[in-house]
Amino acid sequence: MKRLFTLAIAIFSLTAVVSAQDYAFLGKLNEKTTFNGIVRYLDASYTQQDYLQQIFDMTSAKYARSIKNGQVDEKAMQKTLAFNLAHARNVLTPEQYRKYLMVVNITASRNYQDKVLASK
C-alpha cells in the first residue's frame, strides 16, 4: 500500500511538472540513441524492448497530432503523456517503471529549466 501511495505521488508530481513546460521529449523517445539509452538503463528484455518501441512510436505519433498549426494542445499532450506512462507501466516491472518515471521526470524538469533560462 505504501508503494502504491508513493507511486501515485510520483505520477502526480510528474504531471504537475510536465504540464508547465515543453513536451518535446515525448516526440524524441523513439530516436535510436534515446531509445537505446533508456532500454539499457532499464535493463529491458528483448520482448520489453519490442513493446517499448511500439509504445514510443505511438507516443511520437500522438505528440505530432497534438501540435496543430504550431500551437500545442495542452490537453492532448497530457493525454499523450498519460498514454505513454500507462502502457510503459504494463510492460515494465515495478522497479523498471520506477526508473522510467525518474528518467521522464528528470528530462521534463531539465527541459523546463532550459526553457526558463532561455526566456531570461
Walk me through the structure.
This protein has 120 residues and is mainly α. It has one domain (2-119). 77% of the residues lie in helices and 3% in strands. It has 5 helices and 2 strands, in the order αααββαα. It has helices at residues 2-18, 32-42, 46-65, 74-91, 94-119; strands spanning 67-68, 71-72. A two-stranded antiparallel ribbon has the order 1-2. A hairpin with a 2-residue loop joins strand 1 (67-68) and strand 2 (71-72). It is globular. It starts with a helix and ends with a helix. The model is unreliable at 16-21 (pLDDT under 50).
Tag the structure with descriptive keywords.
mainly alpha; 5 helices; two-stranded antiparallel sheet; 120 residues; single chain
DSSP E strands, number:
2
Strand content: under 5%
**Helix residue percentage:** over 70%
Summed up, the helix count is: 5
Please state how the strands of the largest beta sheet are arranged side by side: 1-2
The N- to C-terminal Cα distance equals: 43 Å
Largest sheet: 2 strands, antiparallel
Give the rounded overall mean pLDDT. 80
From the spread of the alpha carbons, the general shape counts as: globular
Total domains? 1
Uncertain spans, ≥5 residues at pLDDT below 50? 16-21
**Structural class, please?**
mainly alpha
Task: Give Rg in angstroms.
Answer: 14 Å
Helices and strands, in order, run as: HHHEEHH
